[in-house]
Amino acid sequence: MDQTLRCVLGFFLLNLIPNGLAQGNRPRVTTTSNWPETFWGETLTLRCEIEGGGDSEWRFVWRRHRTSSSDKETTDNKYIISGATNSDNGEYQCSGIRGHTNPTFTPWSEPFKLTVTPRRPKAELRADRTSIPAGGAVTLTCDVNPPSPGWTYILYRGDHSGTQDDGKNFNGRISVSQGGVYWCRGERGEPVYYTEYSYSVTINIIYRAVATLQPHWTEIYNGEKITFRCEIEGGDDSEWEYEWKTSSSFKPPKEKEYSIGPAYTSHSGNYICKGRKKSDQSPTGWSDPITLTVLSSSPQPVLTVSPLWLSPGDSVTLNCEVKHPSAGWRFYWYKAIPKLSDNSYSYQLLSGSRDGTEKYSFIVHGQTHTAGYVCRAGRGEMNTPYSEPKFVWSGDLPSSASLTVSPERVQHFISDSVSLECKGNSTQWRVKFQWDSFLADCSKWDTMTGSTCTIKSLISRNNVYWCESGSGEFSNAVNITKQNSEIILVSPVHPVTEGSSVSLSCRLRSSNIVSNVFFYRNNKLIQNDTRKELNISAVSKSDEGFYKCQTSGRESSQSWMSVTDDSRPVVKVSTSWPSPGAEVTLKCRFSKNDGLWTFKWYKAVPTSSNNSYSHEKLSHSCSGQGQCSYIGHGQTRTTAYVCKANRGNDARTSRPTFVWSREIHPNSIKVSPPDRGQHVSSENVSLSCEGNSSKWRVMRLTEKGHRSTCSEWGTMKNLTCHITKPTKKPAVYWCETASGQFSNAVNITFQMSSSEGSSFPLPLVLGLFFPLLTLILLLLLCCHRKSTNTFVTRIFRPSKSQKTNQSPAADDVVDQNKTQDADESNDVMYSLILFKNTRGKGEYSCFRPGPPSLQLHQRCNARRRVSV
């Protein structure tokens, strides 16, 4: 009781103490929260802080009104108001008490006014949009109304508040991608104080139907297969039903996928789809339409080739164009093989194209001769038709097929008769020409007689021509121009080899050239004088170009003169006719000394194609510049050799060079009748092949190195070749089998027959023309010899060899190491005068008759002693 009285007295006296009585220990009321407003039911903690109170033990007394003495005494400085209500409103003050026996008191603090908002705050949830596409997102914002600080937020999703907690303690903004009903509320303080739940916000997911195609081709062709598919973006396949609409005459099923195959033109149209949820039958919107076009016929590919004209060893680029080239096509590439039976082509798949290529371009390496190509495209189970054949042309004349022009020039007057003749290893030919983009046949536009095409007069032409053989080969190609003009340029129709001579001239239709002639190359004047010809003694690559001429106020059209680099390896052989088992040395020489080349040796093996060979690699190669040698040991049979020079992608191949054998092995060639090396041209000579094969071809190699089959100069019947066009020069003949073997070889020389040159009439005629000269010669000879002489005159056509095929090794008739300059048509007849003296010895001398006097011909046969 005494203690209580003392406290009451102390508080009474504290109220009587004037302010400032304990200035150093003034109290101050604060709150532990950082927000000024307190809501109904919220817990608030007040704290009494004594300035300069130090660490001394204090007790605290609190009051809510100035007029009240004390409401509460605490041993710590906190005053907790739990579950605030309106009754807790007021101005709160505190004072500190220190000591017990003689307690000291601080003054009352300044009042801290507390106002309790008489309701719980409510959270407010907002969305920047309430509908989003599947896979999209929406931003939700949660705050408290009325606004106040210190809140964090919790987001709920579900049919009832609190059933699903999607986020805690977010700062008021959150992004969501799921549809549904959302609430939020705020929280703050310790213990936690919650706001009321916000009103709900419903986020709707807009499911979008998307129609797709597999494969992704909106344009297909009759017979192809296609599948439509309805995809619901963001949806689970198991919760949806599907519906289709189409403008075509077909009604698709109510399924996710709709397959068409085979497709018809009636399937063409627009296709749309939508989905419907199984749970609530809520639908998506209709998809964007897919327009499907079904074409009645497959596309026609178009092939282009580059370059059109080949240089030896060029790479050829083929491009196959088809509509929508990226729409799943694979491309197939073929070589066109002439097929004369129905005036068409067969197609041979190119190496590397068996499975097709994804790219619509293809490169053919090392093409050397005229060739035709086609392409086609395929996808799924459908292939397009073949493209029209396209050609790359070569002016080089291959040995197996060649095209010659008469007159031999590019430009012709419209009234000229122009003949194109096909030659080679075939008896059947056709002449093709390119007229703009149209492929034409001579037999339909002009006149085809045997192997010769005659171009009609009075029709202008500017076309590329070439031959195609019944055995599937192409010839060289030529440009032919027929024009209705008064002037033309006379220029080579075939490529000119580097180092050779060439002559170009100008020609007028109806008059002779009387004025200067101007010659131009690539529109640049290169000659202007009285010379009517442009002569180039040694052609080089720089001379290649477009040429034209001008004279008498007229100008010709331009023509291209092509210059070829005849840079192929050349094989030289130590002897063409070795003794059995002898050693043979072959040297491969190459004129291109512009880098390191690798040389490889091959045997040339006959193939079933006319006059062609496959190559069987020999175990020898060497590198270097210029040349490479190969030694063949134990040569016993006829063999052909080929040398190849390689540098990177550049490959050059020599012509076959033969080492012949006279020895008869399982395969042989026989000459009849009779079996000898010399014949007169009037004899019926045949060559028979014998051995272990049923398929043969008879070959001939002339002095000039021209290799050809019997079909060019004879008639092949079964295993026998009957020579109908004997060569005037010595030649070597042999047989080849389709299985790749050679026979022995024979030399044959044809001499002029008696019907072509009598031994009596011509000397008699010559004697009548030249009696005086003959008498003078006889007198001179008689004076010199001092004896009685007689003479006989004969007409003699000299040959390089009088030897038969029984002993050719001593003096080879055909030397493969030399190029013959003389043309076979330039043979001349010589008057041979035989003088016999009485001592039993005589000499031949040769004279070439003709005005103004007899001249000694230096190429006559060597003198030969005879006895009469």
Share of β-strand residues: over 45%
Radius of gyration over alpha carbons? 56 Å
- Basic shape: elongated
Total number of strands: 74
* Biggest sheet details: 6 strands, mixed
How many DSSP helices? 5
Poorly predicted regions: 1-22, 756-770, 784-812, 819-868
- Helix and strand content put the structural class at mainly beta
Cα(first) to Cα(last) distance is 190 Å
Question: What proportion of the residues is helical, as a percent range?
Answer: under 10%
Mean pLDDT: 80
Explain what this protein looks like in three dimensions.
The structure is a single chain. The chain has 868 residues and is mainly β. Helix content is 5%, strand content 47%. The strands form 19 sheets. Strands 12, 14, 15, 17, 18 and 19 form a 6-stranded mixed β-sheet that branches. Strands 4, 5, 7, 8 and 9 form a 5-stranded antiparallel β-sheet that branches. The longest helix is centred in the first third of the chain and has 15 residues, at 2-16. It is elongated.
